[in-house]
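Newbie here. two chains, one complex. Structure please?
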Amino acid sequence: MARYLLSRLVALIPTLIVLSLVTFLLTTAARGDPALLALQQAGEIPSDETLARYRQQLGLDQPFAVRYVRWLAGVVQGDLGKSFLSTRLGERIAPTLVLGLTALALSSIVGIALGTLFALHRGTWLDCGGRVLTLVLASTPSFCLAIGLVLVFGELLHWLPVAGYGLDEHLILPSIALAIGPAASLMRLTRARLLEELGQDYIRTATAKGLRGRVILVRHALRNAAIPLVSLIGLRFAHIFAGAVIIESVFSWPGMGSVLLTAISGRDLPVIGGYVLLAGLIFIVVNLVIDLSYVVLDPRVRVYQAAGR
Amino acid sequence: MLSLLIGLLLVACSSASSVPAATAVTGARTVPDREVVIAVSRDLANGPQDPWFCHSSCNVWEPLVGLDEGLQPRPVLAERWELSEDGRTWTFTLRSGVRFSDGTPFDADVVVKNLERMIKISPRPSPYTALDINVGYGGIPKVTRLDATTVAFESEKPNPTMVSTMSNFFSAMYSPASFAENGDFTGPPVATGPFKIVEWQAGQFLRLERNENYWGEKAKIRQLRLRTILDANARVSALQAGEIDGVAELGALFPAQAAQLQGRPGLTVGADPISRSQYLAFNSGRAPFNDVRLRRAVLLALDRKALVDSVVFGYALPGDSLIAPYSKAWYSPRGSVRPDLVEARRLAQEALGGRTVEAVLPFNTSPGQAIPYKETAEYLQALLRPLGIELRLQGMENAALTDAINRGEYDLRFTSLGWVNGDPDFIFNTFMRSTAPFNTTAKGGYNNPEVDRLIAEGKVERDPRKRYAIYERLQEIAAQEAPVIVLYYERQPYAYRDTISGLRHRINFQPTFDQIVLLK
């Protein structure tokens, strides 16, 4: 297990290097001179002399390789690069992670719970109505949901704050807006997988043995249904992370998403590069955690690993 | 017993939430002394690397020279100024008795240190106004302390407009203790304005407190929070949900939103003129708009009153001369043009001979635009079709648009300009000098030797009457040759709830935070 973990971690390094190189290449290839854009932020067009002096200050007069190596050296030392527009990306990581993980937890709990509920009440009005509702919710874009939530719970009922950051009631609306879509798809998969498992022979055996319904459900059916669910949760995290860019701007959540939008329109290369690198790192770590959870959930994976490595 | 306990608990909870933490008695009424929250559309502080740390809108720092509502130089930290015989040296007498918010005195040494820093870090970009010492002082000035309250600024060449070009941002004064070795700030700076910064969270808020050491009339509220809410709809939602007291500052309330909120109970909605204008610029360097007749045809076809009513719901002053009428010192009616569709068609017919030409109008589609570029572009498209000009509208993201403009890939484009210093040279130098970045880097391509000569003369002319004549002539030429057309002079809408009063905008779009009165 420890060796497996170590090998997975070592494999991260080339992935991240390739990721950073591709990002750096793409941002350089994009139209627009970052120095000119920075100086032109307030509308004034700088003189050629001023522009040349500023390009030199930023090191933009250096060749690509030199700039890339300098940036990478900074990254290794924990410095994501000085923003051309004096944005500080580091301060924005925590709010995005808080929002993303809350939404992930919320969607997992609600999705699995509802999926189980609907599976157990298969064919009833509860199941049918619930499935129609979740289908509608799953196919509504998250920003529409967000605006709807703001209208109802903010403007109409005055129950919850509609904008701003805080680990209190400020977290409720944005995380719900982000969680609804993933929760709905997770619900559908949980229901389908549970129905499949509940029809298996081993469930009948367990029932015949006289095990209680709850034990059968949790210890046998859900556990066997878990692997695709965990995979889906991992995939959904990517969606949540991407969706956060929009949700953050709707709720004025000061995360990485809003910074990314500004950075893109200002060609703030160090910040864009830093964002992609951080996002890549978070994905890779989440995937790693999910892969490791297979080992815990499924004995067959453990056996395969013990035999293979 | 249990029910009694629950009852007591309920009473305790409800009374705790309904009693304000602190109260202040003003006259007969009791008003809670709470924090006032205003939503703004952008971070009004940009951090230690920014040349100014925070925008003048924060009411935190003050300049030596400000601008009055007619955009004329106004004494702030400098009480008066004088230009030497040779036109090269300005001598400033500083206001005495001014102290920074930390109690330390403001004097001539402070001015010298501020200028030393500015010279050292120029050029430095900022989302508010880029610091370029050449723009503010026409070169690097030699700054000398004459005595505790007198400072001399010496330029290499005669520089009679310096008192205007250095106004506001370019003569912002901070306590030298706030500067780091490399010229960055060490943190939120100490300055002399009616408010001081208590806490700053990028992307979230700026918390301000009244400066009790303020030299002038002190602010009426004690605590102010400027909340950054990037999304325009979220700002209005927060206002309607009662989370904030008001919405103000540049771009904070869009004209369409103001029109919608107008008349809602419990809300005050208004708009104030600000010193920024929206323009339509031509690529005069290539066909079809290298033909002055066609540029003038566009100018004559445009009914700017109708444009303002339809695209910004009347929340602007229709364009007229390149110099805005609120600048009473420099505006001339000779620069103004009445719409004349018949003459416009005749000119277009003459220039095009009945052909139809295609012209490209790229515009900004990046999110959060307060200016309705798309609507304006569509308005122009319909307007110019009968003249034989078929506009091809190209929505583009901000950086791509800037790049396209700098490559000259446009025939018409929108541009805006904040008239930061109120001097007419700023406007004509920006738009009409043949070697200005607007005409070279951004490919405006306008070139008129007479204009270049007048601009050079106007910059150094010291006789106000002769100077006025020069800029009157330039306004006239602008109306005839139309290298750029002013669409409208902006007005910035604002809205606030009945919890406060006194929130307006000064002409440099600085909200009057120091005038806010807390009502409930």
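Moderator note: DSSP finds 13 helices and no strands in chain A. Residues 213-250 of chain A form the longest helix (38 residues). Thread marked as resolved.
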